[in-house]
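INFO  loader      accepted 1 record
INFO  loader      residues=339
INFO  predictor   begin
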Amino acid sequence: MKNILIGMNQLFIAVLIITLLICCKKQAPQTPQQIETQPFVSSENKETFEYALPPKEEPIQVYIVGTDGVAVYWLNGEENILPCSSSNSGALGVAASGSNIYIVGRDGDEAVYWLNGIQVVLPKSSSERAWAEAIAISGTDVYIVGGDGDDAVYWLNGIQVVLSKSSQRIRASAITISGSDVYIVGWDGYDAVYWLNGIQVVLPKSSERADISAIAVSGSDVYIIGSDGKNAVYWLNGIQTILSESARGANIAISGTDIHIVGEDLTINEIVYWHNGKQLVLPSEKPDMVWPTAIVVSGSDVYITGYNSGNAVYWLNGSLITLPQTTWRAVPSDILILR
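INFO  predictor   done
INFO  writer      dumping tokens
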């Protein structure tokens, strides 16, 4: 009898434990599985619901290169000094290839570039001053445009090529690559010119002197920005259009069908911005000495860099932001946005 009672007690305890486990399992909160690619289909009305994760903040890196006594770059507003051997140095252009950041410029009389902060001196053929002014990267090919003494040159993967010229007053100021075509723009004598795969083309002008500062290619359209006499102009596939009188064009960015051009209105001495041909004046704190240097569009944001009476500045969607500096005169030259 005693054994039967013990057996019944053990059975009762076992049943009680199983019951408690079942209850706890039912009450335990379930963590929903977040599946972006598998839709949930309701068995009642057969409607499909997509599970959407909340949007994540997109990381952004803003590189601005320039000169603050020496060659510097600002990363998200924080100033960094580039290694140099001369006190006369400056950073003039910037580009990225994967995780590699290239900055081009000058160090004393040498044309140089910095790859992830490490300086490389480019070869030169003259004993005079050389400098690197702009850069474009296509695949594994790195093109750097600049000058070497009295020549306009470019370096392809470190090997120098001299551009054709007809005068001693020559400069190559910008470069872009579209497919297999390499465009370099500048001036030769008093003519605005570009080199397409090394062949020089002279653009039409209406005054004695014209020059070019920037180029952008969108599909089959080639936009070239510059000045013709006292007018800010652009050439679209070789045909000139006047943006504004008593002004100069400095740079261009194309985003979809929108054309963004930045320049300077010499009448009011202000930096101006043309959006699809409509001119807007950018705010400045000290308008006695201003000029723009670069423009880039990233998503819906428009960044413009410039110089404002001793200060290195940029405008983000029209709002003026002053960069930190250590000398009385700092100048930004180019900007790169990475997302």
